[in-house]
Specification:
By secondary structure, the protein is an all-alpha fold. It is built from 18 helices and no strands.
């Protein structure tokens, strides 16, 4: 199973990240913020109030662009009181979300649909998740928060390439053939596209090349090749069974997640200094491990090996791994605090989002944890675990509502003054066959 990355800097970053991870295997700190049951109930009530407001607007489904714009404004107007009580956010934090991160989703969705009308809602939401990471990195690197051609392109590579390489029904030989051709394209070669997927991927790489010419920004393409190789190694993680080595599974997860966010960071500016690269790599490893925790049921079903599935197969409670993950998130946050750029408000929002990712994953997989651990962890959540689990289950069954809300934002959205030119995003008609 073992397959080392040929990039020396990747192996060095993996080793450093694993050292940090191992140092986090200590008891959960007792000074974490805690919420009384009364405070949790207050937040839960505000959450449901905000959810009902969004649901009402989604059900109306205005037919005109003006109506959709008004619905969008009402949704945004409903957010501050919800955020203040349910999320504990006020003032600058709410503004950062409503005028920073929210427009990112709108812009990406509009441009993604213009690029390829066959992309599904799930594909676009997946791309948005990456774009949020990239746009969170931009201020930390001294850049304005915006969707650029390269961030759009890199975010869309996931629905086309990552999902294909992860697909259980695609043979290993097919994956490797595609992967080799994709690698040639990332290296600057021009193999003929064999299908719609490759046509789209080749065009997305071209968008990156147009923003970052290869001769001036070699680090950009070094990072893209690094995440590509990490993806190849992770294919073995999907097809693995009980002979997996824990240390190798950790190495693959760190390499895949770390190189992914390093690429986001490099595409945000074109280059990184050592401190920025290390922080980005550790952030990526954190997000990957958080996703692995979220996907523990699915990974067990399809036989994919992660730290969490290996422990679950051995009937080992995931308590200590989650404690380690929470501690690791604090170490990553400390590295973020050392960066000279980015406001304290942004850094606190990012820190809160990492912890929320972990807590939500715990609520969805409570059977893998001991009752004493859940009882100790629940007061550190702003919402009760039963509430979170029930609302998450409810929302997962409301894809129609989310689609309506998303459509309203996209169709009413204003792309504003951005360096992306819509006419340049479409794949040439001759390539769309």
């Amino acid at each position: 199973m073992e397959r080392r990355n040929s990039c020396p800097w990747v192996e060095a970053q993996v080793a450093n990240t694993i050292d940090v991870w191992n140092c986090c295997a200590v008891p959960l700190a007792l000074d974490r913020p805690r919420f009384s049951r009364m405070e949790q109930q207050k937040r839960e009530k505000a959450y449901d109030t905000g959810l009902r407001a969004v649901d009402r607007e989604a059900r109306r489904r205005p037919r005109t662009k003006t109506g959709r714009l008004q619905a969008k404004r009402r949704m945004i107007a409903a957010f501050p009181p919800f955020a203040a009580i349910a999320l504990g956010l006020e003032g600058e934090s709410v503004q950062l979300l409503t005028v920073g991160f929210f427009p990112v989703s709108t812009q990406l969705a509009r441009w993604a649909s213009r690029f390829d009308a066959t992309l599904s809602m799930d594909d676009i939401i997946q791309a948005c998740r990456n774009a949020w990471t990239a746009c969170g990195l931009q201020p930390l690197l001294g850049q304005p928060m915006e969707i650029t051609p390269s961030i759009l392109a890199y975010s869309l590579l996931y629905p086309y390439s990552d999902n294909y390489l992860d697909h259980r029904n695609v043979s290993t030989s097919e994956k490797l053939n595609f992967s080799a051709r994709f690698q040639d394209r990332l290296r600057g070669q021009a193999p003929s596209a064999q299908n719609h997927r490759e046509t789209a991927i080749w065009r997305l790489v071209q968008l990156i090349e147009e923003q970052y010419p290869r001769h001036r920004y070699p680090e950009v393409f070094e990072c893209l090749l690094a995440i590509h190789q990490a993806q190849e190694s992770s294919v073995a993680q999907i097809d693995s069974r009980d002979d997996c080595d824990v240390s190798e599974v950790l190495r693959i997860s760190c390499a895949k997640g770390g190189t992914s966010v390093v690429a986001d960071a490099c595409l945000s500016r074109g280059w990184l200094n050592p401190e920025e690269r290390r922080f980005s790599f550790e952030w990526g490893a954190l997000l990957q491990l958080g996703d692995d925790l979220q996907d523990v049921y699915e990974d067990l079903r399809r036989g994919s090996a992660t730290l969490f599935t290996l422990a679950a197969k051995d009937s080992v409670p995931l308590d200590s791994l989650v404690i380690q993950l929470l501690n690791f998130s604090e170490r990553v946050a400390s590295g973020m605090d050392n960066l000279p750029n980015g406001t304290p408000i942004l850094k606190e929002l990012l820190r809160m989002s990492w912890q929320s990712l972990i807590l939500m994953a715990v609520t969805d997989a409570q059977e893998f944890f001991s009752p004493p651990f859940l009882a100790e962890l629940e007061p550190t959540s702003p919402f009760g675990f039963d509430f979170l689990r029930k609302r998450h289950k409810k929302l997962k069954g409301k894809k129609g509502m989310f689609a309506a809300v998303f459509d309203a934002f996209v169709e009413a959205g204003d792309v504003g003054n951005n360096r992306l030119i819509l006419a340049d995003l479409c794949m040439p008609a001759a390539l769309q066959a």
